[in-house]
């Protein structure tokens, strides 16, 4: 099953470091964001699809941004 969450962030704000509950992607719909995991950084602009690493990571909004988070979750 897939769970999708639409997230809007103001420029300069961020989502604190967290661990994904499953395989996940981040699609940038508007703005510019940076995904940070340890020493690695990925920039995303509209249309980009970023595979989220299976490690603790955070998301920073460089500009006002809207992203679509898709997470694969196990069903019982």
Automatic annotation (TrEMBL):
InterPro entries: RmlC-like_jellyroll, RmlC_Cupin_sf. It comes from the Bacteria. This is Cupin domain-containing protein. It comes from Nocardioides psychrotolerans. The lineage of its organism: Bacteria, Bacillati, Actinomycetota, Actinomycetes, Propionibacteriales.
């Amino acid at each position: 099953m897939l769970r999708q969450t639409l997230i809007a962030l103001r420029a300069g704000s961020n989502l604190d470091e967290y661990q994904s509950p499953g395989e996940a992607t981040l699609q940038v719909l508007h703005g510019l964001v940076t995904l940070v995991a340890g020493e690695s950084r990925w920039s995303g602009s509209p249309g980009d699809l970023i595979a989220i690493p299976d490690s603790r990571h955070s998301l920073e909004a460089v500009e006002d941004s809207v992203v679509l988070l898709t997470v694969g979750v196990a069903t019982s």
